[in-house]
Every structure is written in structure tokens, then in C-alpha cells.
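Quick one, C-alpha cells below. Sequence please?
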């Protein structure tokens, strides 16, 4: 399954890399909102996992923070590097289930709109690694799709997103994300709704 996933996702994002920022326009306000929710202090070190073309990493970099963006797709990182105007932001090619950082060395770890593109075992491995590299008392922020409580709106949004997202999205909609973080020793501090209920931001502290 791992080989199948890596082949699938790399090919998927290689095709989308040069067009991804167009599809990402509707998330531009969310990127800044995530930084506000993370509430970083000056000098914080930030890791943006599955950074893609770097939009979330740049939002943190604009605050003067030391930011690393990591992604599996060289094509997506190529776009991020071309756009990078910040000396405090860097981008690494790497596997989110095997992060190249020591235990407990980062102040903030984030993953934005990426978990829904992963099968369960990869998703679990990514969350394990995010928690591992975050220092005790540090912040973990997870941003991804959600479904509104209104059944009609939930049906509409689910079927719309399913049209353009990867094949792993349907299973993700029933994934107990909050429970997954709590099991790993993350104390949930806030849960915010974004995109009119089509997305959510979870902020937690590593205990």
C-alpha cells in the first residue's frame, strides 16, 4: 500500500503543481487565520508538513518566524522555492512519516489540507511524527476539511469536494481527528470552523 500511495500522490501533485495555487486561492484567508490561531511567540520554530507550494509556510514566515516546509513532491516544492522571498523560510523534500528532526525540537508543527489526501496508515504515521518532533508544551495545528452539521449542506459540500479531491477524501470524512490527537498526548485547546463549515482548525498542546 505504501508504494502504491507514494506513486499515486507524487503523480497526482506533479500534474497539479503549476496550477495548484489557482485552486488554493479560496484558502488564502484561512492561511492567515491559522497563524492567528497558532499564536506564535517571537523566535518560534515552525514545521509545515506537506507544505505543497508553501502558502501556509509563507504565512508564518511573514511573521518573522523560522519556518521549514516539507513535502513529498519535488514539483510542488519547486513552485514554493521559486516564490520564496523569505530568508527565514526553507523547503525540504521528505516523507512526513519519517521527519528529519530530533524528538521535541520544534515549537509549532502544522499540517494544512493534506490529511484527506492520505490513506489511514500514512495519516497515522504523519500524526505520530508531528507529535514526536514537537517539544513538550509546543503547539500542534491541524487544518483540513469538515462537513457542516446541516445535512443538506453536508451532502452538497461532500459531493462537490469529492469531484476534485483525491480518492482518499471519502474515508477521511469519518476520521475522528480530535480523538487521534488526544491519543497521542495532545491537549485540544481550540477547534475553529472555517470556510463556512467546510473546514476546521484544531490547535493543541503537546503534554
Amino acid at each position: 500500500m505504501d508504494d502504491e500511495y507514494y506513486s499515486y500522490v507524487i503523480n497526482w501533485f506533479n500534474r497539479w503543481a503549476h496550477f495548484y495555487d489557482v485552486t488554493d486561492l479560496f484558502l488564502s484567508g484561512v492561511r492567515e487565520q491559522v497563524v492567528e490561531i497558532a499564536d506564535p511567540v517571537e523566535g518560534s520554530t515552525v514545521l509545515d508538513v506537506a507544505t505543497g507550494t508553501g502558502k501556509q509556510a509563507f504565512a508564518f514566515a511573514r511573521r518573522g518566524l523560522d519556518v521549514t516546509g516539507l513535502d513529498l513532491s519535488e514539483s510542488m516544492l519547486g513552485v514554493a522555492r521559486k516564490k520564496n522571498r523569505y530568508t527565514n523560510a526553507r523547503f525540504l523534500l521528505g516523507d512526513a512519516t519519517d521527519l528529519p528532526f530530533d524528538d521535541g525540537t520544534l515549537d509549532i508543527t502544522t499540517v494544512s489540507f493534506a490529511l484527506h489526501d492520505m490513506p489511514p496508515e500514512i495519516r497515522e504515521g504523519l500524526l505520530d511524527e508531528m507529535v514526536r518532533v514537537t517539544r513538550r508544551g509546543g503547539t500542534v495545528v491541524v487544518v483540513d476539511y469538515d462537513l457542516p452539521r446541516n445535512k443538506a449542506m453536508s451532502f452538497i459540500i461532500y459531493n462537490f469536494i469529492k469531484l476534485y479531491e483525491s480518492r482518499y477524501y471519502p474515508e477521511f470524512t469519518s476520521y475522528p481527528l480530535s480523538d487521534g490527537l488526544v491519543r497521542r498526548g495532545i491537549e485540544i485547546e481550540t477547534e475553529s470552523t472555517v470556510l463556512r463549515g467546510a473546514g476546521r482548525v484544531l490547535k493543541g498542546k503537546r503534554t
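The radius of gyration is 16 Å. Strands lie at 45-49, 66-71, 89-93, 106-112, 134-145, 186-194, 199-206.
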